[in-house]
Specification:
The complex is a heterodimer of chains A (247) and B (87). By secondary structure, chain A is α/β, with parallel strands linked by helices. Chain A has a single domain, classed as Metallo-dependent phosphatases (Purple Acid Phosphatase, chain A, domain 2, 4-Layer Sandwich). Helix content of chain A is 28%, strand content 23%. In chain A, helix 2 packs parallel to helix 3 and helix 4 packs parallel to helix 6. The model of chain A has no long low-confidence stretch (mean pLDDT 96). Chain B starts with 8 loop residues before the first helix and ends with a strand. Chain B is elongated and about 50 Å long. Chain B is α+β, with helices and mostly antiparallel strands and 87 residues long. In chain B, strands 1-2-3 form a three-stranded mixed beta sheet, with helices on one face. In chain B, strand 2, helix 2 and strand 3 form a beta-alpha-beta unit. In chain B, helix 1 packs across helix 2. Chain B is 32% helix and 28% strand. Chain B is built from two helices and four strands. Classes of the chains: A alpha/beta (247), B alpha+beta (87). The interface between A and B is medium-sized, with 34 and 24 residues. Strand 13 of chain A pairs parallel with strand 4 of chain B, so a sheet runs across the interface.
């Protein structure tokens, strides 16, 4: 069994010092890895990323993250990423990482994702350059994420994104803004490549649980949705992994 | 911005939401805003108590003639993590 801790949308700012550290105490005993589903900072200031890195500096399990829209606002995502990586986190954007947990190989693919909407009411790359650019950004990210995921040959495959791949986890959000909250292209890419679990954030008023059309479990782990510092998802047979070994 | 309190409430709601998104004291996109009877009601969650208090400041500066009812809450993180076996 692999124990996956996940949370998104922690929106760390200078005023967050001391607020996260206590709630992550003990995570090493209850999870094998931690996934951060974007919007890690309040508005994309590298100094905010430094606060997050320090708040999580006592977490000993591997941390994998994607950036969200807030992390892009000051147009310094590369610096935000750099600070997080110096803090020991692995930041993924159309990339993969692999880790062994108690003899089980685990692959993680991650990307920010983007909007565009869901089947039956989605945007198309047609018309003005701005509209084409909007949808093509999502298409490019979905394509890169799918390609990255297909390279993984691990026993367990996890996907992190910030934007939502399905509309089921958006219930509670105004339907008018669904196209700004996610895109079916993200789900389609993962369904084609295959995965065991997708976690995402971004939809603060949504719900936690959903499933892609291809049957892959989806969890919206935005902190305001789960109402906890993080949730833990157990995957795979109980007789495999570190928890089974009692480590 | 002058005379915001005299604007059509539907447009005022949009301006307040935009301010709460862009103002670095808050930077929150998901707050709900309604204007009625000379009052502004803001609800939803923010990450910290400092940002919760700043919501009232940002709205008060934008629409000084309106009474601000700040019903925002700081997101809960004190509960124990929930564990789910995903099948």
């Amino acid at each position: 069994m692999i124990r996956v801790a996940a949370v998104g949308d922690v929106h760390v700012g200078a005023d967050s010092v001391g607020t996260l550290r206590p709630s992550f105490d003990g995570i090493d005993g209850s999870a094998d890895l931690l996934l951060l589903a974007g919007d890690l900072t309040k508005w994309g200031d590298p100094a905010e990323a430094q606060v997050l890195a320090e708040e999580l500096s006592d977490v000993a399990i591997p941390i994998f993250a994607v950036l969200g829209n807030h992390d892009h606002h000051l147009d310094r995502p590369d610096q935000v990423r750099c600070v997080l990586e110096k803090g020991g986190m692995v930041v993924l954007e159309g990339e993969t990482a692999e880790v062994r947990i108690g003899g089980v190989s685990v692959g993680i693919a991650g990307a920010k994702g983007f909007g565009g909407g869901f089947t039956g009411s989605s945007g198309t790359d047609f018309g003005e350059p701005e509209m084409k650019s909007f949808i093509r950004h999502t298409q490019a990210i979905a394509g890169t994420l799918g390609s990255a995921l297909r390279t993984l040959r691990t026993e367990v495959r996890l996907v992190i994104m910030h934007y939502a791949p399905i509309k089921e986890t958006l219930r509670g959000e105004p339907p008018e803004i669904y196209p700004f909250l996610g895109s079916y292209l993200l789900a389609e890419a993962v369904d084609r490549a295959g995965a065991d679990l997708i976690v995402h954030g971004h939809a603060h008023r949504g719900v936690e649980k959903g499933m892609t059309p291809g049957g892959i479990q989806v969890r919206n782990v935005a902190q305001s949705v789960i109402g906890r510092p993080y949730n833990v998802y157990h995957l795979g047979p109980a007789d495999r992994g570190r928890a089974a070994a009692g480590a | 911005m002058p005379d915001e309190q005299d604007a059509d409430p539907r447009y005022l709601v949009a301006r307040i939401r935009e301010a709460l998104t862009k103002d670095p004291r808050v930077n929150e996109l998901s707050l709900e805003v309604s204007v009625s009877g000379g009052k502004v009601l803001i609800s939803g969650t923010v990450a910290t108590e400092e940002r919760r208090r700043a919501v009232a400041d940002v709205v008060g500066e934008l629409a000084p003639g309106l009474e601000v009812r700040n019903a925002t809450e700081v997101v809960t993180t004190s509960a124990a993590p929930h564990v789910e076996a995903v099948e």
